[in-house]
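WARN retry 2 of 3 for item q-0093 after timeout on previous attempt; input resubmitted unchanged.
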Amino acid sequence: MNKKKMIRLTALVGVATATGVVAEANQAHAATTTTTETTNQTTNASVESTQAAVDAAQSTFDTAQTSVDSAQANVTSASNNVTSASAALSSAIANKEAATSENIASATSAVSSQAVVVASASQAVSEQAGVVSAAASVQASAQAEATSASASLSSSSANVASATSALSAAEAALTSDQSTAANNLSAAESAASSASAAVSSDQAAVDNAQAAVASAQAIVDAVAEVQSSDVINMSVAYITALKNYLANPSSANAAALQEVAKGADYVKELQQKFKSDASLDVVVDPSDPTVQEALSVYAVNLINHLRNQYGLTTAFGASANANVAAIDFVKKYYDDEDWNIFGTTGSDGKGHNKNGLDAYADQLNTSIAEDAGSGLTTWVNGKATMATTTLHNLLYAVYSDIATMLFDDGGTNNWSHAQSIFEDGTILGTGGFNNVYLGVAFDKYGYAHYELYNATEGNHLGNNAYSLDVQTAAQALLTNAQASLASAKASLQRMTTNLMVAKAAVVAAQNQLAALENSSANDLVAVTKARTQLASAETSYQTALATYKQKEEALKKAGDNLAAAQASLEAAQATLATAKAKLAELEETVANLTNADQLLAAAQAAYEQAVANLTTATGNLGAAQVDLAKAESQLALAEDTAEQAKVRAAIAAQVDQQLNGSTENDRQSAGQDATSLKTNGRALTATVATASAAKQKQGANQGRLPQTGNDDQEASTMVLVGLGMLGMATGLYGYKKKKLTK
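OK item q-0093 returned
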């Protein structure tokens, strides 16, 4: 409840107290409390009643609004009909004005002229239809002849096939005896020869395998000594100069390193120290896993020996996985791409395949560095020649390449090979080389590739690691050689058995051929006859083929003529359709001009009806809008009444609250002098009366007020009710009329 309402209610309570009777204060208070409770019940019922009236008025308003919307739609539709009827009427008027005898005669004449055009076009269509019919007949005849020629050609082809088959059968019969026997003999002799060659080959293989076993045994005995003797020792001066250069690659340090290294002459001196052992001159496959193991272990031992001299404690490793990766990389990015790293002269090569290195590093998800050397290639007069692939040459190639990387790597390479051997944790300035494994592979040009991988748990390049004990690798080579010898001996035994069987087959074939030397000559006569029949069938086939081609050409020409005739017919039909449409348009014009009066009358009647319909719809809209206005007013009045009922209920509750909260002193103040109040501009005076005087008014009060308690209490209560109603009549502070929306 807002402040203004509280001020008004307080004034009303004061007036009620001033006009109380002089009965005992406690009794008057009890009677007044009962009266206000009855008043509260009445006002609450009024609130519910007025709210129901609001709901009913809202429903009436919604219905009226729907009626207005429907009437408005009818008006719009009727207005559109009037517009359409007006346009039709204007057209009819124009048609009526144009319906002169001259115009009608002119239109009729145009119809007659167009009818002639239609008749001519129709005649053209009929004539062209005849042309199409004739062309179709010719095409059908040509089709029949082509079909017949095709059947004849097929028959001739079948005759040729039959004659060919007969000739083949006769020739087969002619050769089936002696020729077959001779072929059998030849095949048997060939098989015997192959078996003999296989025996010889396997015998040679056994001999070679035995030699390989002997060589492998020699390798086992000599390889440890070779590894221990084939070392490269660097001078202290070289190590110092190399460290200075790697720490600061200045021109002065490079020159000092070059001076200490002594260049190519010192390389040759080192190469001459390689131990040449005849036991190593055994032919091997560079990609054989055992040979790969021996080469990578040999190379890693050479490099780790150098790293120890340099003062490094971390060592390179060797593994089967690293070797497989090296072979796969070289095949894919050098052999398959025909990538010659050095070229034919050493100066015309493509260099390292850097794109391939990047791609393979991404594939393995690791860091890769590559060194390359001349490998199996010896430079003679500026041209490369492939050396014999023996274990001696492979080991020498590795030894020579590593020596060259150390002491003959100046110029454009800037000692990069030496850096790749001696750097720790990085290679050529690239990090990620904390666990280096070496793989060795030779490309198809004979050049050696040394792939340095950083092995991790993720790429598994360090798995299947080799023991760096060269004796183990050499022993594996011996084991493989012994297995090869056993396999060669088993193959020799099989081939020897096969040779005995083949020789027996030769004897049998020779006996069969001797028994059939006196066969009949009737087969030769049958062959001659079959050849004559085949020649005749082929002649007939050529004749049928020529006829078929001629008929096919005639069929094509007939088809082209038919297509052209059909196209002309379609054009004539299109012309006829256009002429008929024009005739229909002219006939419609004549009909409109001839019936202008009737068309105008009909248009006038339709227009007047549309106008009448619009007038009716407009009237209905007006009536619906009047009903809507009434419903809107009734809704506003019902909402005002409901709002007032709520206010009265609030006042009654406030009065009851104040009376219930008064003290005995407040009740005694009812006997004080009169208090003058002004309400709605009119003075009200309350006087103090005796109990007997109050009783004189009892009869009048009983006829219009509720009888609650004694007379004095009733009079006091009625004053309160009267003042409360007066407050309602004059309005209350804070009340705002609700705005009606729709």
